[in-house]
Amino acid sequence: MARTAASDDDDDGPPTYTMARGNRRDPRLKDLGISCMLNTEVAALLAVIRRRPDPYSYLPPAVAAAEEAVFAGLIQSLKNLRALLFQPRHGAWRCSDPSMYLTPFLDVVQSEEVPPAATGVALSSVLKILRIDVFDECSPGARDAIQAILTAVTNCRIERIADSGAEEAVLLRVLQVLAALLRARAAPLLADSAVCTAVNTCFQVVQHAASSRGSELLQRTARHCMHEILQAVFSRLPDIRDDAADDDAAVTSGAGFGSRCMVDVFNFLCSLLLNATDMVMTPEGHGAFTSEEDVQLFALVLLNSAVELGGEAIGKHPKLLRLIQDDLFYHLIHFATECSPLVLSMICSTVLNLYNFLRRFLKLQLEAFFMFVILRVGSGASGLQLQEVAIEGLISFCRQPTFVIEMYVNYDCDPLLRNVYEEVGKLLCKAAYPLSNPMTTVQLQAFEGLVNMITTIADNVEVEKAPDQAAYNVEISEYRLFWLERWETGEDHGHETWVDFVRKRKLKKKKVAIAANHYNRDEKKGVEFLKLCYLVPTPPEPKSMAYFLRYSPGLDKVKIGEYLGDPDEFNLQVLKEFTETFDFTGSILDTALRTYLETFRLPGESQKIQRVLEHFSERFFDQQTAGVFATKDAAFILCYSVIMLNTDLHNPQVKKKMSEDDFIRNNRAINSGKDLPREYLSELFHSIASNAITMFSQSVTSIEMTTSRWGDLVNRSRSIEPFTPCDFKHKLSREVFIAVSGPAVSTLAAIFDYTDDEETLNQCVEGLISVARIARYGLDDVLDELLCCLCKFTTLLNPYSTTEETLFTFSNELKPRMSTLALFTIANRFGESVRGAWKNIVDCLLKLKRLKLLPQSVIEADGSVSSNSDRLSHRPKSELGVIFPSSHRGAGTSRHVSGMIGRFSQFLSLDNTTESLLSVGSEFENNLKIIQQCRIGSIFTDSGKLPDESLQNLGRALIFAAGGKGQKFSTPIEEEETVGFCWDLILLVSSANLHRFSSLWPHMHDCFMAVSQLPLFSPCPFAEKAIVALFKIAVKLLPGQPNPDRVAEELVCKSINLMWKLDKEILDTCCEGISECIVKLIMDHAGSVQTPIGWKTLLHLLSVTGRHPETFDQSVAALIKLMSDGAHINRFNYAACIEAAFGFAALKISPLEISTKILELMADSVKWLIQWNKSGYSDPGSTNSSNSSSWAEDASRMGNLATSMFIKLAEALRKTSLVRREEIRNQAVADLSRGFAIAAAGDLDLGPAGCLACFNLVIFAMVDDLHEKTLEYSRREGAERETRSMEGTLAAATQLLADVFVLFLGTLAQGPGFRTFWLGVLRRMDTCIKSDLAAGGGLGVMQELVPRMLKRMIVEMKDKEVLVQRDGDELWEITHIQIQWIAPAVKEELFPE
């Protein structure tokens, strides 16, 4: 409220107060409250002082009066303060000098005469003033006031209080005031020394409370106050700049405390941790803590709090940072292996905070902590309890978002450092590996950390588009001294990125380890390997070899020592470079020597030792800072003397040991004629005596972090490449996983195998899925190994289990179902990276089918759905019945995948209730739902997204499974069903990959060939199912393509031909399916068939499968349509078409009108030959083909393609003339005659050779065959009718011979073999006329026909002057003689005398 402005003269009543608008309080009311508070405190303090009994009755009057005067002064100052409290002031309390109202209270606090109760009340009053911020840093005199409060509190005479209870009450108030003082707004005005005094005072209270057996409350309060003070001090650190000039200015100007006091406080806490043993309470009452653990925890809590509050700002203050680098980390590592679990846990928490805030400055320190603490304790070397704490601490590190990648980049990829990340991963795998069931706490913790690490990698490895496999390759093409290479941001690196730089460093580091292994066995081979990998130049230079010997892990120290001690000039240069890799700045001699000799085994030969020590002493002399040595020789002599002292003191064979005086006496006057300082030599002697230099041990099994080793680490940390904070990159993330992939997958698989706990199984599957998410990026072998493990866990491939046992296990146990779901989920999501594991996946799928764990809707080929599956699912199904998802997404992002797999057991729960898996529905329904979740169909329908190699492996697995490799069938029916199922899947895969059929199918065809060569291969079910599936593929492949793929067509036809040749009976058993596909292709898509082998295969199998009554009609209709249309007949398919036509025309079941139609079409086809011959074969099939048929080879031999095709036609008609049905025979002869007539009329140039071939291959053969048939029937009893029928056909054939002879006489006569040909004609005429006689007299058809035909032919020959009577004409003489024997009746007419 505020007073209203009104005149004092108004008589309207007392003045009123009104509330100010808003929530802001009127400052006058706040000042009034402060006044009231101070008044109350003054009154309370006066009351306590006055209540005291008469304390001076035993004193002399004068002394008593003086003491009373002091009390009177205290009381008077309090009264004076009270008199001022409510007087009007020229401002608020905040603007007043705090000394005005603080001094009376502080006087009471420092007084030795006031009772303890008064001291407590005075402290309570000061505490109130501080807490309500009566003054702040801007108040006049605030600096003096805040300093006065601290002085008064620190000068409070606690020891005068005899009563322990009163003493404890005062101490509690002192602690509260100190805490409030450092948290007050004016606290920054305190000087550095004042802050240190406050901390020291608080710690004294802590000691006092512990040593005087104070109450638990006081002890806890003292420690809590200490914590609060540190929090108040270090919370200011981010706002303070650390600079020497600023510090000096702060001291002179009194600007307040800065980082100097924090350095002192931090140093005090480090010393507290170091001297923990001295702080423990002794039986005599000395000490402040009950146990060493208590001291360590107290110090660690305060240190951790300081780090948490200081945060990254500590890195801006070199002195504070140096304390952490040099002192704190050494103490943490030293105590971590010898402490209690609680202390180790606190140490791990502290280091974790240091990692988060200051890792850029703590590279070597963090490496040492992991190698000497986490890895050693985590392996169980310090007991099970500490191991559990170490693993838990390691898990905390693994939970940090970038810990994994930063460890890998900064340590595993640094050639100078250890493989920290790889060792951490191996530790987690080893600790998590199950050796018993149930798993121990340590195993579960390590398992959690392993899964967390793998999941982190998987979450960060995802990219929109995976690079090609070649993009992951790293090559080293030139030598560079990579040991000291650094990535400088501002430099020009060409095309090399930071990721490339890091990956190359890691590769070089790996090759160095391999080279070290070679070098240990053979030095020359090791050096050659270094040259081959561009790790050293050719020829090697001293510096590169020196770095190899200095930093290569696993190198034999004996070999290093021998190499460095060799007198060869190159080896001496290497020794010099090797020694210059050490930094001995600030080190004493024995520490430097220990560091030097730890890297190799000193040779035993004295000359070699001398050479090594000469180089060491020279380096040490150049880097000495104390100036102890005047010359290099002095350093060398002392080094040699130290080596001798070490041997003398620590060799058990030396009985009389060297004393300190002996050692000092032996080194007199070695420093340019002067003695070295005795203290220096004495210190050296005692150091060697207490700790031997282990220079002759090849390797130390357990290296401890000694003071000298830590000093070397600190020196190296000054010059080493700083820690690089970084985030995950795709290629690096992949390589991070590669480093631990083998142990990680083995451990996860073993845990999944051993454990039965559902929660653990869920986490294990999540880890395995994460492995798959990483392995999809080019780690095919890892993914295959993972899938093989999952196949094993499904129990489906257990060869020792019966069907009933496998079925029971799958239906009643969680693990097999989880494995099955995980297996097919990975195959769906990451199938593009699966290679050899497709075989195992296919085997599991076939086992599910054989066990009838696949629902009926999955295995029925006709797509029918049972009533159960209707109720369970409404998803579409493929031809083979595999359930397809309603919507399928590609290999999704990590978020989608991890979300899908997140709680894997939820996929196995069948509803949202808490009922178990077995209590919902029948066993069949439960299994069906699990199979539906597997989304098996997507593996095959989406196989078009698979890369070629993965797809080929999938196809190979399916083909070999169909061929029976690795399969055992109990019944033939089971074998047939399995083979059919495999071929249905092959059909599905092929249909999904029609766009790349040409690249896929050669591999598939090779697999067909390989399967057919298997020892126990059975072609019966394989070929039968295969040929049907292959024709279905052909139906899908050929139609509807704007640019038909001739290669694909040839490939599928080759496979079809292979299959029916494996078992020709399949053409009968599968005739309907084959015929249906062929008819569809010919009727609807004949234009898509482009290759000769394609037409040959289709037409041949059409004629073969069309022999059956059930397929004849549709087959012959397709052929007639093809030949009638003629649009798709060309020179490449003509022969095959004629062959198929012959097959149908000669078929017994073929109706007469059908056969007649076909024969007519065959004869009419001569017109196509004429047309092609005139146009130069510019038909649709005139392009070149890689395949050449047999008839094309005949054409090449004869020189005329048209002649070859015509002969094929004539041969087909000739063969038709031999069938049993007379009408067909006669029709064939007639159509053959018509064909010759069309050829002659159309000027089809057969040529002499072609005409002779027509007679030899067709006409002569037809006459000969018919003659033989006639004779055969004539010899049968009761075959007169057949004989006359066959004789009629023979007569027609003989007539055909004469007709064709007359038609082509001119062409025939031009041939060189006409005489022989003419003898053949006469011989057949003779045979025919005699066959008429042999037939029993019959009708005598040939007796009448042959002379007439001879007469006709000879007359034609005479007319064309082919047969001319002249002297010596052999043709005339032969003809004359033959006519006498064949037809003497026409001799006179044809050859008159």
From TrEMBL:
Topology within the bilayer: Peripheral membrane protein
Gene Ontology cellular component annotations, sorted alphabetically: cytosol; membrane
Cellular compartments annotated: Cytoplasm, Cytosol; Membrane
The UniProt record lists the keyword tRNA processing: no
Keywords carried by this UniProt record: Guanine-nucleotide releasing factor
GO molecular function annotations of the record: guanyl-nucleotide exchange factor activity
Region described as Disordered: 1-24
Keyword Membrane among UniProt keywords: no
UniProt protein name: SEC7 domain-containing protein
Domain spans labelled SEC7: 501-691
Single GO BP term: regulation of ARF protein signal transduction
Pfam families according to UniProt: Sec7, Sec7-like_HUS
